[in-house]
Amino acid sequence: MGWVENPGKGGAPWVYHEVDVPGPSEAAVMVDLTGDGIPDFLPNTVNVVAWYEIARKADGKGFDIKKHDFGTQAAGHGVGSGDVNGDGRVDLLTPKGWFEAPADPSHETWTWHPEWDLGATGIQILARDLDGDGLSDLVYGMGHDYGLLWMNQAKSASGERTWTKGVIDDTVASVHTLLWADLNGDGKPHELISGKRVYAHEIEPGATDGSLIAWYHFDPQAKNWVKHKIFQGEPAKNAPQKAEQRLALKDFPPGTAGTGLQLTAIDIHGDSDLDLVCPGNCGLYLFENLGNEK
């Protein structure tokens, strides 16, 4: 795991700097876990929970990278972030519970809360107040099964946190990535973008289903989710029975787009709305947001 330095001039070689060798990393995100305004590096290495603090040197020249190792107890397929307890700090989420960020995330101990067991999730697991009750809820996908799900946070009579599982979309499989973005141009990133990764594994529930890219919004009055399809792919109808003989580019129809391991929402055309860049096993695709165009 490392970073590649931009040389600052065209044609010059980019230099790779190794940071650590924590194990296989399927994906990673940049998120400010220290609250200093500089995004830190949060990988999902599956076998260990660790994050890497990025801080500028005292002289302002360059930066240091400091590893924070939370051990193997909470490790699993999936990782995430969000303010679970409403104290204004970004907590670290795993499929088995969450680490509470202290007042000084760089030097103080993070408290472990084993409050849920989500299974093999995608990346990220996200915390956000969805129903407007002042308590952060969870959103996550099943990385190798069916289900885009959420967990509603409430408080018991004694003031303890409780979590109730709910379904966003139980028809989609291999959900590996989630993204909040402002797709409707109202200035609020309240649209949840997700879908199906093509051949996360060649053999698993839903592996040959048609791919999906969609966005969802939560209706706080009805307390349910509304689905909006951006792309619906065709299934792999003649996929070989053996995993080693399956190939996404051969088994699925041409033009099959999926969510892959990462989604990017960016205004490609400079027309003041967000488009989607979707890489995956069947290629790299751009979906243009046409807004209210007729």
List keywords for this structure.
single chain; 294 residues; mainly beta; 8-stranded mixed sheet; 21 strands; 1% helix
Order of helices and strands: EEEEEEEEEEEEEEEEEEHEEE
Strand arrangement, major sheet? 10-9-8-7-11-12-13-14
Largest sheet: 8 strands, mixed
Contiguous runs where pLDDT drops below 50 for at least 5 residues: none
Choose one word for the global shape.
globular
Summed up, the helix count is 1
- Rg calc: 20 Å
Structural class: mainly beta
How many strands in all?
21
Termini Cα gap = 46 Å
In percent, how much strand structure appears in the residues? 35-45%
Into which percent range does the helicity of residues fall?
Answer: under 10%
Mean pLDDT value: 95
What does this structure look like?
It is a single chain. By secondary structure, the chain is mostly beta strands. It contains one helix and 21 strands. The longest helix has 4 residues, at 248-251. The mean pLDDT is 95.
Outline:
With 294 residues, this protein is mainly beta. The protein is built from one helix and 21 strands. The longest helix has 4 residues, at 248-251.
SSE blueprint and pairings:
Elements: E1 2-5, E2 15-18, E3 27-31, E4 40-44, E5 50-56, E6 63-69, E7 79-82, E8 91-94, E9 97-100, E10 111-113, E11 123-128, E12 137-141, E13 146-155, E14 161-173, E15 179-181, E16 191-195, E17 212-219, E18 224-232, H1 248-251, E19 264-266, E20 275-280, E21 283-287
Parallel strand pairs: 7-11
Antiparallel strand pairs: 1-2, 3-4, 5-6, 7-8, 8-9, 9-10, 11-12, 12-13, 13-14, 15-16, 16-17, 17-18, 19-20, 20-21
